[in-house]
Amino acid sequence: MNNHSGRRQVAGLPHWDRCAVMGVVNVTPDSFSDGGRWFDTTTAVKHGLDLVAQGADLVDVGGESTRPGATRVDEAEELKRVIPVVRGLAAEGVTVSVDTMRASVAEQSLTAGAALVNDVSGGLADPAMVPVVAAAGAPFVVMHWRGFLEGGNIEGVYADVVTEVAGELRARVEAVLEGGIAADRVIVDPGLGFSKGADHDLALLARLDRVLALGHPVLVAASRKRFLGRVLAGPDGAA
Hints:
two-stranded antiparallel sheet
């Protein structure tokens, strides 16, 4: 997570004088990179603590896969997966982010000790999300998102991906601010891999200055994304 020089820190999070590193714990059977590896609470909490020991500044806990083709889980199942892990990590002093599109999961996670809500829909999937986060005074990640369909993300078509993503993010941030979330608690995310192909992702990485120009710290979630394989693959296709 990049807090560009001269920009404010995120209220409600620790002070970092460098790019903060976010570790990820997917408490799911079907996430694209590690689905099923950390599916029980004990293993998931241990993995989160291992990530911190390896240098992660905060740990993002999610109970619903957002990979292309994933099927949404119901609210009860997501809560069952996420809350014990959030509570376990927070009890160990870990700064925890909850990755969810549901206001109810965000609210209960904040009560369980989460410090940050990371919503890949930027509050669009659940109209109650922004009011819940605003009432809690929690930091909020606004990701660029063009919708979610059962079976995959909505196809992204762009004339100028950098200009369009920056513009759509700006509009979404304005809506979030109008909804009551404080400006110093907003983080923006260009949404690499969400309704974007490899060329789109690479263009956004090359012009992150346009995202930083929105005036908020930026979260870049590039780890293990498919476009990296295209860049790093050898002649035989192996990364």
